[in-house]
Each structure stands twice: as C-alpha cells, then as structure tokens.
Amino acid sequence: MTSPTLPPLVQSMLHPAFYPHGVTEPIQLVQTHISYVLLTGDFVYKLKKPMNYGFLDFSTLEKRKHFCHEELRLNQRGAAELYLDVLPIIQDGETFGLGGEGEAVDYVVKMRQFPQEALLSEMYDRGELREQHLEALATVLADFHKKAPTNDYILSFGEVSQIRQAIDENYDQTVNYIGVAQTQQQFDETKAYTDTLFAEQTPLFDSRVEHKWIRECHGDVHLRNICFWHDKILLFDCIEFNEPFRFVDVMFDIAYIIMDFDARHRSDLANLFLNAYLEQTGDWEGLQVLPLYLSRQAYVRAKVTSFLLGDPSIPEAVKQDATATASGYYQLAWHYTQQKTGKLVMMAGLSGSGKSTIARSLARQWGAIQIRSDAVRKHLGGVALDAHGEAMLYSAEMTQKTYDRLLNLGITLAAQGYTVILDAKYDRQALRSQVIETAQAQTIALEILHCTAPADVLETRVQQRQGDISDATADVLTRQHMEPFTDAEQPFVKTIDTTQDLAPQLAS
C-alpha cells in the first residue's frame, strides 16, 4: 500500500507493473535524506531526491542525470558487479515507465541486489567477520587507492586550507552540544590539536601532495558500505556528489574502517587491518596524518548524531540514546588527538624463528605498527609483494637500504607516539647498533626481542611457508648466522623460545 505523502513517481515504483522484469512482493522502499531506494528482489533502483543541501545539489533533472552517471562510473571501480546501468524514467500521461522511448522525467541507478547479511557490519555483528576478510579488504582497498586517479586539480584538495575548512566547520556546528554530549575540555583540546597541526605541520601535508597520496578516493568507506558477496570484497556507495569529500588523502579513507572498529572496542581488528593495508601500500609515512583523519571521522559521526538532539519530533528516549552515542564518538575523536609515548621494538632472529608471528601478535596487543623487512625490501625494489625477488633484491646494497628505511620509519613514527616493531633478522651487530645509537640519541625507548627455535624447527617452518612475502628458503637458512649480542646490547635483549608459550616469557 502506497503512502499519499510519497511523490507519484515513487508510488508508481512500488507497483510490480512499473518494472520490465519479475519482482519479489512487496517491493521495499528505503528512504535516506537524499534518495529513494527500491528493492525489487534481484535488482535495486535508486532515485535521487530533488534536494539542494549546499554540499549536494540534485535540484534539477540534468543534475540528477549527471550524478546518476557519476555514481555508476565511480562505484564500478569498487563494485562493478553491483552497479549495472543508469535508466531514464518516462512519463506517458499519468503513467510512469522504466526505460523506453519518450522524454525522461527522471533517472535511476540500477544495481544488483545483494543480501544485507553480506555487509561487513552485519558479519561483524554475527561474529562471522574473520581475519582473512580484513586482510582481503586491506588488499582490495590498497589496490583501489593505487588505481585511483590523481592530477594537479585533485592534489590541490590536499592543501591545508582545503583540509581544515571542513574540520573547522565541524567545530562551528557543534558548539551548542558542549556540556550536553561533550565537555568543554574535550572540545578545546580536540580543536587545539588540529589548529596546531595545521599551523606547524604544513611541510607534512605538502609531502602528502608531493607523493601523490591525495586521490579520487571512495570518501565513505565504512563497514556498512562494504560487503563480502560471492567470495569477493566489494566497496560500494562512494561519494559521487561532492568533490572535496572524495578528493582526499588515502588515510582519510582507511580512517573510517579503523574508527569503526575502535568504536566497537575492537582495536585489535583495527590494528590487523591497518598493518595489512600499510604493508600493501608501503605508505607508513601516512601514519603521521592518520590521527587527524581518525579524529575527523569520529567527530563527524558525533556531529550527525548530535543533530537529533535538537529535533522536536524525536522522542526523549531516542534523544537519550543519541546523547550517549554522540558522547562516545566525541570522546573517541578527542582520544585520537592525545599525545602518546612512542617506543621501538627490534625483532631479531634467523628465518623461521617466528619473528613475524610474534610481531603480529604483539602488534595487535599493543596497537603497534609492524614493519616487515621483506615488505620494505620489495617496495624499495619495485617488486610485487607476492612475487619472488631476484638476486639483486638481496644484494648488500639493497639490504643496507632496507635497514636504513626501517630505521628511518621506526624513529619517525616512534617520535610521533607509535609503538613500532621493526620486523627483520637484525643478525648483524652493525645493523643493531645503528638502531640502538639512534634511539638513544632521540631518547626513544627500545627493546630487542630475540626469537629462537631449534634448527630442525627453523627448517620445517621455512619449508612449510605458503602465501608469505618472504623469499627465504631452507637453502638460504643454512647460510644465515646470528652474531652474538654484545655486553652493550644485552640490557635491551629479551630472548624468546618461540616453541613455548609467549606470555610468561614476556612477563619475566
């Protein structure tokens, strides 16, 4: 049964006769503030509302047609299986029809319908979201960003003046909620963080532009806009209607996913995704701007929820829930801006000793950044992570470059407050001493975790590796030798037998 408050066209779209194919009755209508979405069984049709919100303008037929085609174009990048076509709606007297000859009175985006159970947010709620899903998501999103276009115009959106405009607007629009959903201290300290960052770190933002990390991104890639369907990760419903929301730093995009997990009190999953993504892209420097975008995404979620508090049509019980929800997001936005004390953790040990396994586990426990030498080496050599590296990749010169970059990243990020795990053999005293001396000069805390296992275990582990980025073989293992730790190194060293339980060894 149709509602008299719906436009005649939408009422027609609720009838099976409107469609040139069979439908599942009743046809479901989902409304957002900008669209009517009709679910017919096999297909979904999205009709844009003739609205103008400033940041979004669908007020004319030509604009709706344009943005329908933009939605199709942009979303086919991440979900080509879902986004099928843009179709005109034709009116003949009082009758509307989908497609055909005649003058169009509106346009719809046609999509393939998938079950809501396939959304990552739904999978999480059911306890079915696994590590392999997040690793696949990291790979898919890294590839999406790699292929995303950029040019001088898109890069201009990475300038400080462009970035801070929307962030300052968020503060202006939430002043009335101080003392209601957030404290004055939270507001002041969150704003002070961004003000200081923009005032003092212009070279950092310039570097993001210089290295072309400002791209035509998704713009709204949270867990409700990602699905796992037919054994494939699909990114859908990207921002088509506003360039500043889409022409952003890649860190802006991944911040949605990390913040989503943090808000669900699953920072371990956030860490797993983050480390997997960084390893795919090699963009560890992006961690320097990530807190800004994490805070921004949480703050926007808080702001939008806060808007319910001033709506007289919202029941009081709903407002109470909204206040609690907004308060949680404001607190999270503030938390991301708080200065933390960084630390360096140097792994050491031969191939197969379990360094990466231990490092991965500790990264999730500590919220640390794990940087594997195998990934760094391949990024430096221009070799795909899943490809086998040739001999030149393992030359003395490339090895030194690899360890130099590990050290540079470790020091840079630890100084920013990150705990950084340098995951490499560090079998030579010279390599270890560089890290120790630099960390001490920068007054950065340091720990060395020396991973050990019996020789037969090392060999078995190396032989059984599958799907790992390491190129080490049993033959390579026979040529490896761990130089003993000096007296100067010993105070930093904790030796771990990786065939035994980790927790008591770390506690001792």
TrEMBL record:
TM ranges: none
SUPFAM superfamilies assigned: P-loop containing nucleoside triphosphate hydrolases, Protein kinase-like (PK-like)
Domain of life (superkingdom): Bacteria
Coiled coil (residue ranges): none
Residues annotated as signal peptide: none
InterPro entries: Cell-binding_unc_protein, Kinase-like_dom_sf, P-loop_NTPase
PANTHER family, per the entry: GLUCONOKINASE (PTHR43883:SF1), SLR0207 PROTEIN (PTHR43883)
Protein name in the entry: AAA family ATPase
Organism, as annotated: Myxacorys almedinensis A
